Amino acid sequence: MSKYQEVAGWILEQIDSGVLSAGSKIPSENELCEKFHISRQTVRHAIAKLSKEGVLRSAQGSGTYVDDYKLKLSKRIAVVTTYVDGYIFPKTIQGIESTLKDYGYSMQLSFTNNTYEREREILENLIAQKDTAGLLLEPTKSALPSPNIDLIKKLEEQGTRILLINSYYQQLPIPHVSLDDKKCSYLAVKALIEAGHTKIGCILKLDDGQGRERYLGYLEAMKEMNLAVDDKWIVWLDTDDLGNMEENTDKIKRRINDCTALFIYNDQVAVEVISLLQKNGKKVPDDMSIVSIDDSDLAHMNGLSLDSIPHPKQELGEKAAENLIHLIHNSSFDATWKFTETLNKRGSIRNIKKI
């Protein structure tokens, strides 16, 4: 973030938190120069930017004041996620709601069930309402080209600021707040390699962007250690497959048969795969080492001790809400943010290095 954006962001935080209200005089140019250790020209750049957006107004010989822009703007934020009952979403929504409340915004919550039809219906309703200040959107099947891009663009044209969460559409240059899926999967696979495994398979989600990014991290870790990647070790599952894992039992068994270790898309899938292994007489980690992502309650329930990288959940929701508010008041704000987490080890990786 440039210096003038830092100043502008600080002023907006003071307004949104209530420290500065409509009609309040902001600190003088000299005070801002001293506070941020910057030139008067940089301060004037920040003030000019906020004045152009209607946030501030200057009175000659008197100073610069907060305009009554808060009375002009909608305070409603639409939050659209794929599911309501997953182990990630309740905490994420809680983080979003608490942060929006702190800044004086209300939340309108909807769920797409990861279907294009429901996502389109929700977006059409938001367009018709015409008074949505911002949209936090978890993309539907984000690994695939979306048929709803036109509606997202129309919302932007109406002035709605949009921030994507958990993933992003490659078709659109819209900021996003997410887990750094590529980096985290790299760290997960690297842990398997460091334990001596070379035949490492992976089970990933095909239609969500997280699956694409996690596959890139898997490939990077394998390539870094000059390990071969066998096509038959890679299992791709889509949203419908996850709802009926039994139909994919034979495919999974056949593809991972030669592997000694697996990187699995998330804890939910990992639990299903572990059950499948157990039914076929294989134990974790004695016969198969496993590492996953999310570090949910599933990772340590029913006797499981699953090595897993945590999803930031509530922190992600808080950061997404905060960045969207900044974006509403400053269209040039760099709202993209990626969380990098470290692996929580519980014993599902067997060390097979030769001593």
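(ticket continues) Second input and output from the same batch:
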Amino acid sequence: MSDTRNVPVLADSVRTTAHGVEILDRRVYPFERRWVHCATMEDVAVAIEQMVTQSSGPLFATTAGMTLAAREARNAAPGDAAGRLRAAGRRLIATRPTNNHIRDAVHAILSATVDGPLAEAPGEELVAAVAKAAAEHDAGYRSGAEALGRYAAELLEDGARVLTHCWGDAYLIGAVRAAEEMGKRLEFVCTETRPYLQGARLTAATLVEMGYRPTVITDGMVPAALADGLADVALVASDRVTMDGHVVNKVGTLAVALAAQAFGVPFYVLSHAPDPLSPGIEDVEIEHRDGDEVLRVLGTRSAAEGARGYYPAFDATPPHLVTRIVTAHGAFEPARVSDHFRSSTDLDNEEQPAR
């Protein structure tokens, strides 16, 4: 049965057209609905770097960027077309190195084309093949988000007050919709999430759009909010989860996890899957952005002239602070998150992680 519910605006914020790619500018949403036109793959890469799109947006921008790269190599000889497509993939991966979804999207498209059956295909043939592989990867991501949303909703009680940090995008939408289908009505507390205020703008706006009235707090209020009983569960997304259960997410997530542990609040993490190429946290590159970004709020300087900024864009939450990691295959204790890759039959034949 098709889903007849309205699609939240941010769930459809990257669109490939005959003339390029249109990306909804999340830096100004919801105050403005401004689309950034990208005529080339390089335009897409710059848009990702400059935070035009965030959360799962860079993944969809990446698949769209690869589609543009194939168009740009349309008239190239077979070997040259393949090389240009691989170079485009390297450029897109470098835009936000911490999030492995970008890397995985590039590798999936290359594996289906120039690193697979179309290694010697002419540029013209690659255009349709790359577009097809991009669409299939996008669809798989959305399907996985719906699946993990159902597993997450199973963990939440009816009436649960859920604390979020940053913007979980398709993950959060999937969890909310699944909870509604189960007859559960949730309440939400959103951290504002400095310095881009994704929680105050993106998460809060989408929840309002879906019929909720979230409470917004500053990042530093999390311990006080939990002490006051404002929320009874924390639910965050992730940019990468290592095979040993470390969670890498928007900076500030570690503080939420520490506060949750201090006040006995479950801390749940949403992730498509742990990253097989990251056995431990030492295998993850933590992106550091220009410190000047923390000296401003939505383009307006908020710090004294002469002050310096420091901006690690992500932090790492160790496994002992995490209650469950929810993937597209189930809800796992951090120490067992690698079970995501085991067959459902194997898991059914032994005791399942508690949910």
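Agent notes: The longest helix spans residues 123-155. The chain has a mean pLDDT of 94. Closing as not reproducible unless the customer responds.
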